[in-house]
């Protein structure tokens, strides 16, 4: 984990190269997905549904990046959803449409020419003193289902 004091040299080099400083692993866990639930590479020419119910953390976020670690460029200037901005069904379930073409409700735009990397950040509740790691064991990560490809 890059946010730990005992991070390996590759994680430290990545931080130095990108200039991104991760939060401590005691406060947040990062989950990276480059494939859908069938194990197929996420690509901009496909459309996906990402879904889940609320996690055990106080706050989470999901962002789409390109293969170079940069946010997916798009004309809508929408780059992420989080537990405060997501629209949910009455049962607490949410769905995010990951697509290069506009969709209703929770649409996260992608670029047709890019491979996609999703980063899901799960923050621990500050009020309970639990670590992100203990919450991760109880949390269900979102599923990523391929809908169409063209």
Write structural notes for this entry:
Residues 125-130 have low confidence and may be disordered. Strands 1-7-3-4 form a four-stranded antiparallel β-sheet, with helices on one face. Strands 6-5-2-8 form a four-stranded mixed β-sheet, with no helix packed on it. The protein has two helices and eight strands; from the N terminus they run αβββββββαβ. The relative contact order is 0.28. The protein has 150 residues and is mainly beta. It has one domain: Sandwich (Jelly Rolls), CATH 2.60.120.
Topology:
Layout lengths: L8 H10 L9 E6 L12 E7 L6 E7 L14 E3 L11 E6 L7 E3 L7 E7 L8 H7 L4 E7 L1
CATH level-3 fold name = Jelly Rolls
Our Rg estimate from Cα atoms comes to 16 Å
CATH architecture: Sandwich
Structural class category: mainly beta
CATH superfamily: Domain of unknown function DUF1214, C-terminal domain
How many separate helices?
Answer: 2
Which series of helices and strands comes N to C? HEEEEEEEHE
Instruction: Estimate the global geometry from the Cα principal axes.
Output: globular
Strand order of the largest sheet: 1-7-3-4
Q: What's the CATH C level?
A: Mainly Beta
Number of domains: 1
Helix content: 10-25%
The biggest sheet amounts to: 4 strands, antiparallel
Measure the end-to-end span.
36 Å
Which band does the percent of strand residues land in?
A: 25-35%
Number-wise, the strands total 8
Uncertain runs are 125-130
Mean residue pLDDT: 80
């Amino acid at each position: 984990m890059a946010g730990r004091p005992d991070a390996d040299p590759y994680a430290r080099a990545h931080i130095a190269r990108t200039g991104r400083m991760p939060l401590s692993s005691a406060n947040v866990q990062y989950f990276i997905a480059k494939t859908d639930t069938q194990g197929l590479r996420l690509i901009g020419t496909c459309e996906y549904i990402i879904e889940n119910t609320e996690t055990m953390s106080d706050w989470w976020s999901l962002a789409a990046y390109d293969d170079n670690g940069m946010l997916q460029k798009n004309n809508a200037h929408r780059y992420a959803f989080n537990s405060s901005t997501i629209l949910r069904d009455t049962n607490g379930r949410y769905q995010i449409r990951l697509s290069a073409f506009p969709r209703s409700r929770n649409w996260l735009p992608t670029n047709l020419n890019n491979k996609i990397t999703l980063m899901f950040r799960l923050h621990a509740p500050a009020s309970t003193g639990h670590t992100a790691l203990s919450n991760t064991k109880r949390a269900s990560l979102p599923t990523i289902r391929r809908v169409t490809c063209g």
